[in-house]
Write a structure and sequence with these properties.
Elements: E1 2-7, H1 15-29, E2 33-38, E3 55-58, H2 71-96, E4 100-103, H3 108-117, E5 123-127, H4 131-134, H5 140-153, E6 158-161, H6 164-170, E7 177-179, E8 200-204, H7 213-223, E9 231-235, H8 241-250, E10 257-260, H9 266-271, E11 275-278, H10 287-294, E12 299-302, H11 308-311, E13 319-321, H12 325-337, H13 339-352, H14 358-370
Parallel strand pairs: 1-2, 1-4, 2-3, 4-5, 5-6, 6-7, 8-9, 8-11, 9-10, 11-12, 12-13
């Protein structure tokens, strides 16, 4: 199989970038010819390493620079960039003749341009967030935009959702939808003898509205006085850092909640922690939750669409909470005060995460891709 993955960039250390890199490397190891294409990488380094067997190309259409222009110039330059991207993508397809194209994240304009070149090539589109967020409409223009998106997606050979909940949403509009989970990059086999830092809570993800770190900070402020030895380390980057650090200061939690830059060895941080918390409003299939469980770290997650409720059996392999700060505070408090149960949840969560091992899940992805050829 000659397969081409298309992604906006590999400049961010997010779950999408990590899993796409893992998939490309795995398929190359299985003997498939793999092309990895970005279209606005620019001069940024690749955050995750691609195998030397993977052909990497950047179309160099830097749409991330458009924000600096006024609206009329932004629209014109966007139109020009789309034409350039389509031309370069067309040349690449003519030269390398992929059997299958996988478009992993998309916007209206890029998806249309990319798919217009693939008239005789099967296209698989992957949904990595929640349908309820991507396709929600607050006004007439958004409804038109979403209708346009659905019309484009009807032309793809297959849409892959990461969860059953997301799959059911897409099936209301599209015929060919399939669910395949994402894998964990690494499954730590022995977690019994890990030395964890007492009282350490870890959170991982972009400093973005979706992740609702403001909810987490407020929740911890409600119980912090009762548990003075417990603290939170957040690993992530993003535009909300200043506002989150201001919230931490206002609530008197400086030193108790610390925001760190992303690390390439996040598994070592999971293994040092006694508790993991996911406070999001929505997810695709939260890779950070799977990673924490794969490290035997007891986990709490909001019961958001979609993913956590399909991964966690409540109070068995993890704990689910409502999407409000009081319930999150109560669940963190329960985990802290029930040490025996917390350790049991970590052990059972670790066993449950074994089904997301790469050697199991990657075969499902390979089968899904081959099914459209």
């Amino acid at each position: 199989m000659n397969i081409a993955f298309v992604l906006r960039s590999l400049a961010n250390s997010g779950g999408i970038e990590r899993t796409l890199t893992d998939k490309a490397n795995y398929l190359a190891e299985q003997g498939h010819q793999v092309l990895f294409v970005t279209y606005e990488q620019g001069q940024h380094e690749l955050v995750f390493e691609l195998s030397t067997s993977v052909i990497y190309v950047d179309l160099n259409c830097r749409k991330f620079t458009l924000y600096r222009y006024p609206l009329y110039k932004r629209l014109y330059k966007s139109w020009r960039m789309n034409r350039v991207m389509r031309s370069r993508w067309n040349t690449l397809v003519d030269d390398l003749h992929p059997d299958l194209v996988v478009i992993t994240t998309y916007s209206n304009d890029s998806l249309s341009e990319l798919m217009s070149v693939c008239k005789k090539i099967p296209v698989v589109v992957e949904s990595h967030t929640a349908f309820t967020h991507d396709m929600q409409s607050h006004n007439f223009l958004e409804k038109l935009k979403n209708k346009y998106m659905l019309n484009i997606l009807k032309k793809c050979s297959l849409l892959i959702a990461l969860t059953e909940g997301d799959k059911l949403c897409w099936e209301k509009y599209l015929k060919n939808v399939r669910k395949v989970n994402n894998p964990v990059t690494r499954y730590v086999e022995d977690v019994e003898h890990v030395k964890r830092r007492k009282g350490r809570i870890i959170c991982v993800g972009r400093l973005h509205e979706q992740k609702r770190y403001d909810r987490l900070i407020s929740a911890f402020s409600l119980i912090s006085d009762r548990h003075p030895s417990w603290y939170i380390d957040i690993y992530g980057y993003g535009s909300l850092r200043d506002s989150l650090e201001h919230q931490i200061d206002v609530l008197g939690l400086k030193g108790r909640i610390v925001i760190h830059e992303p690390t390439k060895d996040i598994y070592q941080e999971y293994l040092k922690s006694e508790l993991f918390v996911l406070s999001s409003d929505y997810e695709g299939l939260p890779l950070v939750l799977l990673e924490a469980m794969a490290c035997g770290t007891p986990s709490i997650a909001t019961d958001c669409p979609f993913g956590p409720a399909e991964v966690i059996n409540d109070y068995e392999t993890g704990v689910l909470c409502k999407m409000d700060e009081k319930d999150l505070a109560n669940k963190i408090d329960w985990m802290i005060t029930h040490e025996k149960e917390r350790h049991e949840i970590g052990t059972k969560g670790h066993k449950a995460a074994a089904r997301y091992k790469k050697e199991i899940i990657m075969k499902e992805w390979e089968c899904a891709y081959l099914s459209v050829l």
